[in-house]
């Protein structure tokens, strides 16, 4: 389902100004549901599979096909007229979806490339060996600060041999070898790998930067988007820290597609439901503290408190009578 859609010019704001609703929908879908869509392939395979599923359930298909079909269903559910448009020969609509997704990604990576430099060291400290805001070749494992954040869990960045092997590429990093920056305070607990996962400050900053406003990194956001938005910020921050100059879903060096899918697979794993639920609650409380229901106590003597009290009293009477 991957595609190289970063050919869109990062300076082209057309996805923001276009009046075509599918451009805007592609932007929203790529940022909040699935970031690596190859829309022509996804839609063609999905439509054909709908016919096949009349004879066999989706559970009979391989895991990667089930994942792809889930994204397909989310896409057509989010835009009900899409299938009808395609069956009427409006193939250009698929181009508009891809334009929105790649345009949003281009803008996000462009602005984060500079912003991330303010987050990689504690506030008030300067980065030793300053990093360029516009050139990325000195990032990744080529720099002490970004290399320490991108170092895979289980490896010791302070080990000179490990550091050199990562820098030279002799030690290849697979996508499912997650970077330490995904963990709170860059601390990985080998005995409890869930502890701190996807709870780092740099991910929070990236989310606020992409989905709210540039000034909201230090404040509570006033806007929200649902779904996998925090995974989009994860991918964008990872790319901003890397030395890659162009985002490519099929990049075998960074293995970006495997990286993204491995996180999604974990979050979709039924065996991890409790941990994932806790993680999502943590994100809601952290990013939108005033929207958390746990923060809202019913005012004493309010109409709502009287209604709740009356309901409780009626339930108690029913329980006694029974």
Give your account of this protein's structure.
The protein is mainly alpha-helical. Helices cover 51% and strands 0% of the residues. The protein has 13 helices and no strands. It has helices at 14-17, 21-32, 39-52, 63-78, 82-87, 92-115, 144-150, 160-168, 201-211, 229-241, 256-268, 273-287, 303-321. Helix 9 (201-211) packs across helix 10. The chain is globular. The model is unreliable at 1-17 and 220-227 (pLDDT under 50).
Radius of gyration: 23 Å
The shape is: globular
Number of strands: 0
Structural class: mainly alpha
N-to-C order of helices and strands? HHHHHHHHHHHHH
> Termini separation (Å)?
58 Å
Strand count, sense and closure of the main sheet? none
List the helices and strands and how they pair.
Elements: H1 14-17, H2 21-32, H3 39-52, H4 63-78, H5 82-87, H6 92-115, H7 144-150, H8 160-168, H9 201-211, H10 229-241, H11 256-268, H12 273-287, H13 303-321
Summarize this, please?
By secondary structure, the chain is an all-alpha fold. Helices cover 51% and strands 0% of the residues. Mean pLDDT is 79; it is low at 1-17 and 220-227.
Record keyword descriptors for this entry.
mainly alpha
């Amino acid at each position: 389902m991957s595609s190289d859609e970063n050919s869109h010019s990062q300076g082209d704001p057309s996805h923001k100004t276009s009046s075509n609703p599918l451009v805007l929908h592609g932007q929203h879908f790529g940022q909040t549901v699935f970031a690596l869509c190859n829309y022509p392939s996804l839609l063609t395979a999905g439509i054909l599979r709908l016919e096949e599923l009349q004879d066999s359930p989706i559970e009979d298909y391989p895991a990667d096909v089930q994942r792809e079909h889930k994204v397909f269903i989310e896409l057509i559910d989010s835009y009900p007229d899409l299938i009808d448009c395609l069956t009427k020969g409006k193939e250009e609509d698929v181009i508009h979806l891809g334009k929105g997704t790649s345009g949003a990604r281009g803008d996000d990576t462009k602005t984060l490339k500079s912003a991330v430099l303010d987050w990689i060291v504690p506030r008030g400290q300067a980065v030793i060996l300053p990093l360029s805001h516009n050139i990325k070749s000195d990032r990744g494992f080529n720099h002490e600060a970004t290399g320490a954040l991108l170092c895979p869990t289980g490896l010791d960045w302070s080990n000179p041999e490990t550091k050199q092997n990562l820098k030279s590429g002799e030690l290849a990093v697979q996508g499912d070898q997650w970077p330490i920056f995904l963990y709170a305070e860059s601390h990985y607990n080998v005995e409890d790998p869930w502890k701190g996962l996807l709870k780092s400050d740099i991910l929070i900053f990236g989310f606020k930067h992409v989905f709210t406003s540039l000034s909201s990194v230090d404040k509570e956001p006033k806007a929200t988007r649902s779904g996998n938005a925090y995974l989009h910020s994860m991918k964008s921050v990872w790319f901003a820290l890397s030395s890659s100059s162009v985002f490519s879903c099929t990049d075998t060096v960074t293995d970006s597609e495997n990286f993204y899918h491995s996180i999604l697979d974990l979050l979709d794993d039924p065996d991890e439901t409790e941990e994932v639920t806790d993680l999502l609650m943590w994100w809601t409380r952290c990013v939108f503290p005033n929207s958390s229901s746990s923060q809202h106590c019913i005012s004493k003597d309010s109409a709502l408190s009287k209604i709740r009290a009356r309901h409780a009293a009626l339930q108690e009477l029913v329980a006694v009578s029974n």
